[in-house]
Design goal:
The protein is an alpha+beta fold. Helices cover about 45% and strands about 25% of the residues. It folds into three domains: about 5-130, PAS domain (Beta-Lactamase, 2-Layer Sandwich); about 135-210; about 215-370, Heat Shock Protein 90 (2-Layer Sandwich). It has helices spanning about 5-15, 20-25, 45-50, 55-60, 65-70, 70-80, 130-175, 185-210, 220-230, 255-270, 275-280, 340-350; strands at about 30-35, 40-45, 90-95, 105-115, 120-130, 215, 235-240, 250, 280-295, 300-310, 350-360, 360-370. The N and C termini lie far apart (about 55 Å).
Length: about 375
């Protein structure tokens, strides 16, 4: 039987039992169906599209072996099912991303391979085994961040009151000084007090401003970020748009999203100083839709998936685990608040933010769930 007839038979089975493809489409785990003989894909569910970062149309017709390379344990599982030695196999293994993918990675996964009632078709299902570990880690990080935020708020309030007194006293002292040359010292006190006041205001700002919740187009917000960064770095920096224009509007505070992404992109541009000099600096703004995601033990059908990726030197190893903490900065003179404010925004919108960094590629990954607006 030809590949085309097999695909038609699968579609025919779907029309005879319409719940079947609908059920697979709704499954949170990645699922592909392929021909037993030549192992060409005939069906890919949305979760598999998201996991492989490729569309169903581009995947159907490819060999399943092209997806994960020469994976000996996977090939052995498929052969045992294909030759009827077992009807199903399950195993934990490492799956590699599609060869040629821009962001290659190895994923420890739980894999199931099973024969359909139709003996010419085989189904493969997989899910990362680190999902539970990641969920537990996110919960610990959230608790730690909340404790840090409370500490910083209390510290900022404690600093704010005496700071005003120090500045006021310096101003009065300046008026009383007989030697005008001594005003240089009072000006130092006043300017440093103003600098600390600005820092305190930035620490308190996220908790003062009321959130403006509305549905907005994320790509319009990203275009604003792009124009702001390029205005400051007009030469030597390229900002790539890698947008999924089919994304629905996201519900949240538009200005906060702009500020959060701008903080990340601005940090990236500053880290790319050497690449900007050689004209090789690059920042990619990438959007996708994520399906069946869990935040704080609550599952959502869809989430906005946003990446800010640069080709800079990477985040120093000694601060990589602390980059979202207040006052932690890898740049001399940096306040260490940009990423903290970005994390605050994401958490206020029930989402998650993470960073994967190595020399040549730093990827900040933001996910915001799609929610219905409360009336």
């Amino acid at each position: 039987m030809s590949a085309g007839l097999l695909r038609n038979s699968f579609k025919g089975a779907a029309s005879a039992a319409p719940f079947f493809p609908i059920l697979l489409d709704q499954m949170p785990n990645a699922i592909v169906v392929f021909e037993a003989e030549n192992q060409q894909l005939v069906y890919v569910n949305p979760a598999a599209e998201a996991a492989l970062d490729l569309s169903r149309k581009s995947l159907e017709g490819q060999s399943v072996h092209n997806l994960f390379g020469d994976n000996i344990p996977l090939n052995a599982m498929i052969d045992e099912v294909r030759h009827g030695q077992v009807t199903a196999q399950r195993q934990e293994m490492v799956l590699h991303s599609l060869p040629g993918s821009i962001h290659q990675e190895s994923i420890p996964a739980h894999v199931v391979v099973a024969m359909f009632d139709d003996p010419v078709l085989i189904m493969m299902e997989w899910f990362p085994i680190d999902q539970q570990l990641r969920s537990e880690r996110d919960e610990r990080v959230t608790q730690q961040v909340e404790a840090n935020k409370e500490l910083m708020r209390n510290l900022a309030h404690e600093i704010k009151n005496p700071l005003g007194g120090i500045r006021g006293a310096a101003q009065l002292l300046e008026f009383e000084l007989p030697d005008k040359g001594l005003k240089e010292y009072t000006q130092v006190i006043i300017k440093e007090s103003d600098r600390l006041q600005t820092l305190v205001d930035r620490l308190l700002a996220p908790h003062r401003k009321a959130h403006v919740i509305e549905a907005f187009n994320v790509h319009e917000a990203l275009e604003r970020v792009r124009s702001l960064v390029l205005a400051e770095f007009p030469k030597g920096l390229r900002i790539i748009r890698n947008y999924d224009t089919s994304l629905p509007d996201v519900l949240g505070d538009r200005e906060q999203l702009i500020q959060a992404v701008l903080n990340i992109a601005h940090n990236a541009a500053q880290a790319l100083s050497d690449e900007i000099k050689t004209g090789t600096a690059q920042i990619e703004l990438k959007t996708r839709v994520a399906r069946s995601v869990t935040f704080a033990k609550q599952r959502y059908k869809l989430a906005m998936d946003l990446h800010v990726i640069d080709n800079g030197p990477g985040i120093p190893a000694d601060i990589k685990e602390r980059i979202f903490f207040p006052l932690v900065s890898g740049r001399e003179g940096g306040s260490g608040l940009g990423l903290t404010l970005a994390q605050n925004f994401v958490q206020q919108h029930q989402g998650s933010i993470a960073c994967d960094s190595r020399p040549g590629c730093t990827d900040f990954h933001i996910q915001i769930p799609y929610r219905k607006q409360e009336k």
